[in-house]
Amino acid sequence: MTAATAPALLVSDHIAGAVYVVSVPDGTVTARLTGRQLSEHAGFLALPGGRVACVDDRRGELLVLDPFGDELVERAVPVAVPAEHLACDPAGRLLAVTTGLGRNSTPWSDVLTVVDLADGDAARVRTRAGEPGVTVLGGDDPLVVLRHREPGALAAHRFADLLAAPPGCPVVTPHALLPLPDDGHGDAQDPAARRVFAATGEGVHTARGKDGGLVAGTPIPWGSPARGWYLRLDTRRRALWSTLRGGAPDPLAWPEWTNEAWCHDLETGRTSRTGLGPGLVFRLALARSHTAFTRVHPDGDELVLLGPDDTTRRVPLPAMDGAPRRGGTPWEGVQRRAVAASPGSDWVAVSRGGHGEVHLVDAWTGHERTRVRLGTPLDHGGHLMMVAPGDGAEGDPVGR
Fold it and tell me: How many CA atoms lie within 13 A of 193 on its CB side?
């Protein structure tokens, strides 16, 4: 990879309200934003040309960032917050932002924002209170597909109808509706086939956009008593990835939770599973030839790298002060880790929550090339995204 196309690492300290751009692999901070508290849950969304979309939860803005341009913030569009999920159509032009709990214990917001980046037009409508996932199907008549819970459903809305809604956040009715189990969590889209996927306890439910509506497909089984809570499209090939978590549902039992990497090839229909070890494993990152996971455990944390020919490399990570402990939960008041990679690069980034550090690791050797030290602590692990122009990351049109 030449210097002109070397990846950049976006680091969001959403607690401290700072965003950094770091050059890879030397670790130099090349740009910084302050007073921007990005939604960690909505995450980063790759757009064409190495650009990235995210949501500032404090200011209520959708940001389009260009980490390779003269100005980091290319555009800011007002949207409803707190942002829950973020997605775009395969062309990277039409975006949708759903709202979630924020710092509340029960669902309260039903506002959905849609944005057309071509002309900056935007509209807000009301759908259904909850924590909806979202995908945006492209084509001649693009659809916004919301994944609802309790009761579970896939609800399709015509993007043009939403964008044409009058002011005042009117309530909108789905153009098409498919039933779904109540425990959906995790969304993905395969743009090549106009298919959407939703992770549930039963497996991965599928639907295809057709004639302005949705047609249900055959669910994809997990093939395990465990289930996935996170779903991601592999842009290097047409495949889905998840992490299957098993064991007692009690959060206090987290050190004994089982974890498996789950990969389903959309071309062949074959599914593979690889054991990752006990503890807390959640999100994953896709490098050029490896898939990266972080595993947090009281006996020691590690970066797990799944490579070609089913090879597995385990890289020990320095302990975090304030890490989850036995007898406590892995979620509340503890430090965590974030992981990022670019499908056009062999570098993997892993954060060390509470220490303001990010490790840059060579996926082939497992050696740490650089340790980036930032000016804020990265409490809760922060959020990371690695991107390079032309790396194909925009092929996954769901925020991560």
Answer: 16
Q: Please indicate, yes or no, if residue 6 is contained in any of the structural domains.
A: no
pLDDT of residue 159: 98
Q: How many domains does the chain have?
A: 1
What CATH number has the domain bearing residue 173? Answer: 2.130.10.10
270 found inside a domain: yes
Q: Which tokens go with 189?
A: 């889209």
* pTM tops 0.85, yes or no: yes
| pLDDT for residue 1 | 44
Token pair recorded at residue 62: 């959708």
Mean pLDDT of successive 10-residue stretches along the chain, which has 400 residues: 72 98 98 97 97 98 97 98 98 97 92 97 96 96 97 97 98 96 97 97 96 94 97 96 97 98 97 98 97 98 95 98 97 96 98 98 98 97 96 97
Hey, what are 54's tokens? 């995210």
What pLDDT does residue 309 have?
A: 85
| 203 inside domain | yes
Domain span holding position 53: 12-395
3-state secondary structure string across the chain? CCHHHCCEEEEEECCCCEEEEEECCCCCEEEEEECCCECCCCCCEECHHHCEEEEECCCCEEEEECCCCCCCEEEEEECCCCEEEEEECCCCCEEEEEECCCCCCCCCCCEEEEEECCCCEEEEEECCCCCCEEEEECCCCCEEEEEECCCCEEEEEEHHHHHCCCCCCCECCCCEEEECCCCCCCEEEECCCCEEEEEECCEEEEEEEECCEEEECCCECCCCCCEECCCEEECCCCEEEEEEEECCCCHHHHHHCEEEEEEEECCCCCEEEEECCCCECCCEEECCCCEEEEEECCCCEEEEEECHHHCEEEEEECCCCCCCCCCCCCCCCCCCCCEEECCCCCEEEEEECCCCEEEEEECCCCCEEEEEECCCCCHHHCEEEEECCCCCHHHCCECC
Predicted confidence at residue 211, as pLDDT, reads: 87
